[in-house]
Description:
The strands form 2 sheets. Strands 3-2-1-4-5-6 form a 6-stranded parallel sheet, with helices on both faces. Strands 9-8-7-10-11-12 form a 6-stranded parallel sheet, sandwiched between helices. 43% of the residues are buried. By secondary structure, the protein is an alpha/beta fold. 35% of the residues lie in helices and 16% in strands. It is built from 11 helices and 12 strands. It has 2 domains: 170 residues, 3-Layer(aba) Sandwich (Rossmann fold), CATH 3.40.50; 162 residues, Glycogen Phosphorylase B (Rossmann fold, 3-Layer(aba) Sandwich), CATH 3.40.50.2000.
Amino acid sequence: MTVLSVAYPLAPVGPGVAGGAEQVLWSIERALADGGCRSIVIAAQGSEVSAELIETPVFDGEITDEIRRKSQAAHLRAIEEALQRYSIDLIHFHGLDFYAYLPGENVPMLATLHLPISFYPQSIFALDNVVLNCVSRAQANSARHIKNLPVVLNGIPTQQYRTCSQKQDFLLWLGRICPEKGVHIALQVAHRLDMPLMLAGMVGPYKDHQIYFSECVKPLLDHKRQYIGPVGLETKAALLSAARCLLIPSLVAETSSLVAMEAISSGTAVVAFNSGALPEVVDHGETGYIVNSEDQMIEAIRCIDEISPEICRSRASARFDVRQMVSGYLDLYASLRGLKH
């Protein structure tokens, strides 16, 4: 089987990138290549994959509508050229804007909806040539107007993460720095508790993200609350292992949470807002706490030593391992091709 995986045009794919969709694509294509399938990936220049990579251009500067259109057009050309060059059995899209570069050829197509349903135009649910799938039950339940959307739960390579015998006394926030992720709330919590906080992640080339960082995040930084920028896989794993807990004060309905899975795999408790699929990932009182406010987040952090790193690690291995996700996608691929996996 030859699978063409298509990433979001404006974000590179790789093991250490911030975007969940890009991490999931990387895990799937790596498993396909290791499993004897032919895997081809279309992604932005600078991506790192195990299989054959077809790169599309990266446009410098702030992301504008014109740059989006150019990126989408480049992706469509790359897809059409790949279909001419290879015998593609299935195309798997991971980008929010996948509908902008659908080819005209008659080939099975799957699009994973990595973001909240409301982020997508309603027109995608009328497409008759693309199967859509969700990444959590909460996300599927939010699409009540669409019945029987397949669900393949996200997973991570849990073996990449290790527990730390001695936790350090700092809080951790890790991810994309943008308003809906509630970074300022994590900083406010750290100030109220007078605790150190390490803030790691990328400020994207979007005007509203950069304004948010300069106006809402930067003023809350000091010698105890530090921004260390984007981090690679090795540094991320070390931070997750050493932190007292990971904070996820998300203000949007999360469709999943790879970083919560990574923290739990590292034996580190997660304190998260009751948002979207987060209660599916975090077992309240066992691998962390689900809270409804900043005040409740503070109280949960004060109880964090009641969470067992060993239970966290055990739960992660049983629930989040990437092999379960890959198996789910292979079954879905087979059904789309009319085959049995």
